[in-house]
Amino acid sequence: MAMAQGQGARATREAVPPVSRVAIIGGGISGLAAAKQMAAYDPVVFEATPSVGGVWKHCVYRTTRLQTPRPDYEFSDYSWKNREDPSFPTHTEIVDYLEGYADEFDLWRYISFGSKVVDIKFLGGAEAGFTELWSGTGKDPLRGKPMWEVGIVTGDSNTIQYYKFEFVVMCTGKYGDVPRMPVFPPGKGPEVFKGTVMHSLDYCKLSEEETVELMRGKKVVVVGYKKSAIDLANECAQANQVKGGQPCTMLVRTLHWVVPSYSIWGLPFSMFYSTRLSQLFYERPNQGFFRSLLCRLMSPLRAGVSKFIESYLSWKLPLGKYGLTPDHPFVEDYASCQMAILPEAFFEMADRGLVRFQRASAGWCFSENGVVLDDGTKVEADLVFLATGFEGKDKLREVLPKPFRDLVVGKSSMMPLYRGTIHPLIPNMAFVGFVESVSNLHTSELRCRWLSGLLEGRFELPSVKAMMGHVAGEADAMRRTTRFYRRHCISTYSIHDSDGMCADLGSATLRKGNWIAELFAPYNNKDYKEQ
């Protein structure tokens, strides 16, 4: 049988049958969780690379670490061996953890490595996706009839091999593979720049020695101010801690709150947003009149919590010194999953002059010798990094057939996914890993369990119209909570979100042992361990 790269004892899938029940596309966190939950159907996991891990294997920097403590980023039935270690796990540790999860539940046997999905064909007929009930009945999608044909290329071959499936789970994720590239007017793009322009995705492919050689002694500009940009600027500063080293300039268009740790004035961060009591005061989708009234009455308290956190961050970090204090409340970044944990000693690098910050709120473009801001400010550069994110939805559009590819993004600019999993207008297909939270691993695991329940026939979906209304309600709740509502983030109502899935499955929604813990103790993955 085939073997996973570097793991001779791990036997992987040798052959794919012409017709199978379930296909899972992607071998990252969501793909592994889906394989474990759907093991009864002998799923075929197509992974384009030679290893599991997804972005944690193929889209990270040398110094990239998780932004979540270990106990909050683990499967409900598989703990970290060193879960009491207070440090944030490195990307290598995360991949090791995921491989251990695959070992524990014998998931390697489902995975076909080096199998890239390049085409998906719908076999259900022209009207199958536009019925009153999802997939025609709203339940029991596995009815013995293939609905999708998945085209695969392997190795260096250009030959597409097609395989038929009753159900497909898309776990390709929002990050990696397709870079988001800024667009410039003619004569103002990278073509006029004498130096090197590189997206962070390409930087991830370099070895440690190559990254140091690339940046050392160079005038570097990093475009962006989210996690990937901050980590990249940090590595640039480390490479230039030598004689002749040059500072790295971060080009900051939109400010976001950054956090040094998960402790606020000595209090655990989880008490502010991860308990039932704390989430009671925040908007949730499709809430009734009395809950809306409660949220309105509690508005001063929500603002007070946000200001309490902001006061600590402004005291702890030199945000004012560098002009990096956002003009929006902290909760708006938290509610849109844009809060970034700082690398250790990041602002010490700035204090030493190794990292500089340049606001570019009005825009920028390239020049022959660097970049020019819209106010005329010039920043010289030998190397410009574009830490501008990824177009995860484009990965879906590239392989989905019409008319489904045109339905990927809804009016809110988010994917319209019921329970963060089912597109009401795309039959016999699910999407896992496209909803964000404080712990994306938990979010994906619970969705895979819910999806398994759907395939087993444990519950019936609402009508297509009702599901679309539910999705619109989520978008409205986001819009009322944060100006960055175009990201599907459930951080401020994650417990309510989990309650809905548990209720569908017929499982308990109250997972603590008593009412005091139910109100005041933070919820985490272990609360959702299957009995």
Q: What is the element layout, followed by pairings?
A:
Blueprint: E1 3-4, E2 7-11, E3 19-25, H1 29-37, E4 44-47, H2 55-58, H3 91-104, E5 111-113, E6 115-122, E7 148-154, E8 161-170, E9 196-199, H4 200-203, H5 208-215, E10 220-223, H6 227-239, E11 248-252, E12 258-259, E13 263-264, E14 267-268, H7 270-273, H8 276-279, H9 289-297, H10 299-316, H11 330-334, E15 340-341, H12 346-351, E16 355-359, E17 364-367, E18 370-373, E19 378-380, E20 383-386, H13 392-399, E21 429-431, H14 440-456, H15 464-481, H16 494-505, H17 515-520
Parallel strand pairs: 3-4, 3-8, 4-5, 8-21, 9-20, 10-11, 10-20, 11-16, 12-15
Antiparallel strand pairs: 1-2, 6-7, 7-8, 13-14, 17-18, 18-19
Helix pairs in contact: 1-14, 14-16
Helix content: 25-40%
What is the end-to-end distance?
Answer: 34 Å
Strand content: 15-25%
Principal-axis shape equals globular
Task: Compute the average pLDDT.
Answer: 92
Uncertain parts: none
Class of secondary structure makeup: alpha/beta
Name of the level-1 CATH class of the domain at 19-176 and 391-528: Alpha Beta
Radius of gyration: 24 Å
Q: Give the CATH architecture of the domain at 19-176 and 391-528.
A: 3-Layer(bba) Sandwich
Biggest beta-sheet profile: 7 strands, mixed
Name of the CATH superfamily of the domain at 19-176 and 391-528: FAD/NAD(P)-binding domain
Contiguous helical run count: 17
Number of strands: 21
The CATH topology label of the domain at 19-176 and 391-528 is FAD/NAD(P)-binding domain
Cofactor: FAD
GO molecular function: flavin adenine dinucleotide binding; monooxygenase activity; N,N-dimethylaniline monooxygenase activity; NADP binding
Pfam family, one: FMO-like
EC number: 1.-.-.-
